[in-house]
């Protein structure tokens, strides 16, 4: 099945590193579940706000502009998504984040662009060894 991004998603990829844009676009084409880009490049103001609210663990977020002038992270959500179900841990909806991750890792592998997922920061294939997890989050390993 082929999905295409909405103008909103395309807009949210502005300022994101071209390597990550490639992976995201490639993944969307092959993903069995549709998804959207909810956030890419983030302003310092917004990062400060998220950090203070406990939604981000670091002020060194890959969403911020990196030394190469690009943001290196994106937050991807199933589309459409039922957040009430996600917040209740309903598998039928939560699993779709894993489906997105599958598409992202397969795209990244084929393109030879290493990425990291917010459910498995150290990339060991385990998710229970992390106390902070962020299912929508993907970033470049650079
Ligand atoms: Zn993120």
Automatic annotation (TrEMBL):
It comes from the Bacteria. InterPro entries: Zn_M74/Hedgehog-like (IPR009045). This is M15 family metallopeptidase.
